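Internal QA ticket QA-208
Title: Verify multi-chain structure generation after dependency bump
Assignee: T.L.

Test input:
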Amino acid sequence: MTKITLAKGLNAGLRKAMEDDPKVLIMGEDVGKLGGVFRITDGLQKDFGEDRVIDSPLAESGILGTAVGMAMRGYRPVCEIQFDGFVYPAYDQIVSQVAKIHFRSMGKVKMPIVVRIPFGGGIGAVEHHSESPEAQFAHTPGLKVVACSNPVDGYWMIQQAIACDDPVIFLEPKRQYHADKAELDESVLPQPLFTSRVVREGSDLTLLAYGPMVKTCLLSAEAAAGEGKSVEVIDLRTLSPLDLGPVYASVRKTGRAVVAHEAHVNLGMGSEIAARITEQCFYHLEAPVLRVGGFDTPYPPSRIEEEWLPDLDRVLDAVDRSLAY
Amino acid sequence: MSEHKSDFGPDLGEVFGPHQADGGPDLVQLLTPEGERVEHPDFSFDLDDEAIKGFFRDMVLTRRIDTEATALQRHGELGIWAQLLGQEAAQIGSGRALRKQDFAFPTYREHGVAWCRDIDPLRLLGLFRGVDQGGWDPNDGNFGLYTIVIGAQTLHATGYAMGMQRDGVVGTGDPDRDAAVVAYFGDGASSQGDVNEAFIFAASYNAPVVFFCQNNQWAISEPIERQTRIPLYQRALGFGFPGVRVDGNDVLATYAVSQAALQRARDGQGPTLVEAYTYRMGAHTTTDDPTRYRLSEDLETWKLKDPIQRVKAYLTRNGLADQDFFEELDHEAEKLGEHLREGCRALPEPKPLDVFDYVYAEQTEELAEQKAGYAAYLDSFETTGGHR
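Actual output:
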């Protein structure tokens, strides 16, 4: 067994997917010789050639639009968007074409496209490099949206996303790329892609997160435990479709829920999740479902991003507010 | 026509010359509006007179599809219709130049190309009637679904062409194997970012795609001068591939130029921009009122260049078609009209519960639950009308 980072997990997952299926292509800016600005595609062009790891012109709509044609021809393109804030030039192709062609063709044309987006903040970048656009895609029927949070999930989820016959927006927490390592045991079968998972058990409150906030929430739960509070943490993993069965079970047990994400709170994923929990668990709730997230402002200059991003203390503050009801 | 005067830099009118309503000296023409064959140094029509009669039939029937659909819209059977009146030669010429293995990516006005790809014209009506969003399988006739977002399909075409390259069906020298893609778009679309990105991608990868621009002079009410200050075909040079302006009302020339461009693509020599210089004689769609923005004398001028009349003149002048031929064709057009009239009203209504099934290839539990919930809701009424 080897210990790997998220970046290595994704790289190995992409490599495995390309080995398993010759129709898998990687497309994007700088994905070839450079191996991507985060080196996620490192070495793949060298081994699979320029026809399968395609360095594209600097045009996001072009990357997604040509991917549509590739998919119609039977390929499975994996498009890399260099940074979250650069996805908007491709937004039309993603929401009007990629998401709708299966529907428009009444199932005759499949769009097995993966759009990899390094997302979220905390890396000290300039503007447009730290955003969390997930709700915009989760709001679009026809797209599936997932977010990985750790190296092992990164390895398996990218392969599962590529194998999926539907378009998948694949969100990668960029500040985790080269952070923590985890052991990858390939003999342990992965859980299905579109499922959530309890990553820490607890009995007093349910903390819900995905992507970069999973780590923050686990640290918060650890800190809360030191104060005698038992916090359960669920890694949502899939944002569209949502897998809320384990969430409902947890909330019925704890009676309290807090949703945390980096994205703006207003109309963010937390809004939908809070509404659904309220619909399904109303009589079990001891407190309103609370949301912790980025403020409803554009992403700030990086020197104050640590203030803007929800951190351990802001999550714990929400935990305390919930428990105070 | 607006003047291109500027205090900054050269007067483009002096650089490129004034706007030329006749298409200018580079216009490729093989059949004059009077129906006379003419030669061109670079492009020749290499089919026989029977083929020309076939093209004539295609154009007459395509026009019938268009006029019949327009009438159906006026009778409330279609919500809207995008007319192609005047663009028959551009579409039949390019459509007939395609081989079976080629693939066409249309806008929403390519009824003539659909005809060439053996799409039942009735299938075209579904989108405009509101019963489906394109009722044909793109892989059956190698004809993509109509695309409403302007220019988006030019990128799909380029990607598809890049897929052909990877499949090894370009430049093999085998005429039954080598394939190309044609992307249709209009003069208005030439302003879109996607079209320009498609040009960049196609040039960069030498993709086997023909960009076939039907410059019909109008993007709804916006004239060509609002889209470009140079002739559109000249833009190709800036992207690094050839551009040709062809008389879009001349079916012989559109065939010859398309055939050459497609062959170039199939041979692995990369993209070509074909600007079919034509005129939208009808409205943009049936909701449009062109009398608000264009001169009737322009329309009268273009009527003299009618793509169908000039072929009829050629056939008649050379004794290639007799009265029986034209009468039989009229009869065939009548039958086609009937097929559309009767078939349109008989198009099956979409079923509300079906919409849940096509969102994803792999159905989600969420949507299955929504479908079940809606089905239960419908069942709660005493009469659901059998539309499920």
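Spot checks passed. Chain B touches chain A through 47 residues (CB under 8 Å).
Status: verified.
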